[in-house]
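Components:
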Amino acid sequence: MEAQSYRVRVGLATCGIAAGASKTYDKLVSLLAEHDIVPERTGCIGMCFSEPLVEVTTPAGETYLYGDATADKVAAIVEQHIVGGKPVEEMLVLSSAAATDNDHFMAKQHRVLLGHVGVIDPESIDSYLAIDGYIALTKVINEMTQEEVIKEVQKSGLRGRGGAGFPTGMKWNFTYQAKGNKKYVVCNADEGDPGAFMDRSVLEGDPHALIEGMTIAAFAIGADEGYIYVRAEYPLAIKRLQIAIKEAKAHGYLGNKILGTDFCFDLKIKEGAGAFVCGEETALLASIEGLRGIPRPRPPFPANSGLWGKPTLLNNVETYANVPVIFRLGADEYGKVGAERSKGTKVFALTGKIKKTGLAEVPMGITMREIIYDVGGGIQDDRAFKAVQIGGPSGGCLPEEQLDLSVDYDSLTAAGAMMGSGGLVVMDETTCMVDLAKFFLTFTQSESCGKCTPCREGTKRMLEILERITAGQGKPGDIETLEEMGAAIRDSALCGLGQTAPNPVLSTLRYFRHEYEEHINEGKCRAGVCSNLISYNIIEDKCVGCTVCAKNCPVNAISGERKQPHEIDQSVCIKCGVCMEKCKFDAIILK
Amino acid sequence: MKEAHECHAEDSFDYAPVDEILERYQGQKGTTIPILQAIQEFYGYLPRQAMAYTAKQLKVPFSRVYGVATFYAQFHLTPRGENIIRVCQGTACHVRGASKIVEALKEQLGLDVGETSNDQKFTLESVACIGACGLAPVMMINNDTFGRLTAEKIKEILNNY
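Structure:
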């Protein structure tokens, strides 16, 4: 029967599962049983905006990706497409055989790292081997010396994907050169930046890529033991890593006598326990040692004195996952993609008020405008773009004028933001920049480990000022005080968390100073977010007295006779905005 | 093992599960956090007796174990509900209206963030980011993630627990 050669894949990463992909998968298992097809599991396909996703590959090799494929809708895919041979057009989000509205999402992407995420079965090493998995490791171990491996990484121009963009090859060389017989390789998979999930996607979708990258690193620097420090909030990633490590050991790519040589590398998982500061390298190492995750001054750097005082190489997930790609393609070929001083691709998590949320891998050097408008399809509901936040709580906000900036490490830092882990949160006119700065500072303040005074006390004082401003009690001079304190904390805090904590405030002050001034001088919040500075009002002429607003008001602040204009009692109103959402006559406005 | 009990003559705490956990990690380095994680997995929180006993067995001061337990957000010193609701407060969720989801949860459960219901059924917590930003706003109940939330959906979801 023809149906036998159809392949069906379901995206089963955390976001897919959250959207109902497990039920979709179970339903497909039962529906496809009579056609002798077993649906395959895969990781994140990247198009979060239409999860759950099901991909059908026809006997001729054409692919059809179906979106919003909840369990109740997949029968159509089976009946109409797999049995009937006719694609289900209304559910189609992407296809190799037909144009769709989402072609722009893929057109500017260059999927090297994510090339296998959402394609292979992350719980099967055979699936990884089938796409040239462990070829890079085999080549490295059998054909190269440690120095050659490090030279190749240096030549590729790879820079750390987790934060400041330190040259990876240089880090490897420092650790290789460090004196000592015992060395460690550690992976930072404590993806704590709110708004970033590319590491989770790799861990859940292509865990062997990380293991292969780390094993190559261990060979290069001469380590025999390694740790992957994963956040406890990623249970599925931990489970898939455990399976992958077990399988890699069974196949001789990890453990004792790797590929029959004398090279041994043992890899363990350490579960984080919930502390943002553990993304800082010295804090992360303290946490692996079982201590409070508190940073210490550097030098000595981990390359010389890291885990239990031994030389330690620390990179993040995306950095290690790039390593097998470098050795598969060769450093020269790898370096052809990207910007002059920022080689290769970068994965960005597109979130916030953007039409197509998801993961996008693009060559570095692309502009922010291309990422937001060409890949992401523009702003939700076609509202006006206001800002994009890049680099998480350590990064900054960039305004419209900066949209044509080249997205590479150095340009972003010069503009007052940073690459960070690659979370892009897009904001429209309904986001208040002062409130956003307060949001980030609330986060860093509560995550401050408390060791050094500038971060512990300084961020608290800055937060108090922001709380006053957003409550309508700002004073002249507040802006200057924020700038002065921000500069002092940046210069004097002990670790990266503290030094970068003022960035969201400083960058919003740089580009959106007028919003701070409006809050302080005019008592106005143009985005309508800061509740002390806004009021909801009913326009008498437009109100028909339908009573819907009054019925939905949670605090009974609205009164009025049926068919007569209603009124909001401002002393009772909690400014939740439900009335405005529910009013069908646009009779309620925000002042 | 006997010594650890001495100061609690009337102590009826069952130390056997802790012993079993400690044995599992014997001889390994940097085990404080995994041991506490295992203890919490078993008891649902970190009982003081279990922490004191762990410190004694690991031959470290109680302050060291207590310090680790209070440093990390994951550890809890008081019993928690049967179902742990973690509502995401990340940037993407914040921008997409997470505050309204928190309000809806508070109202439905009659709990503030950080509180446990009297019948021990639910604990409401907030989390910085669970990495499902593409589906913002999101929350987790135990190990299940729920996305694209609206205030209306909350009621429906809670009814299943």
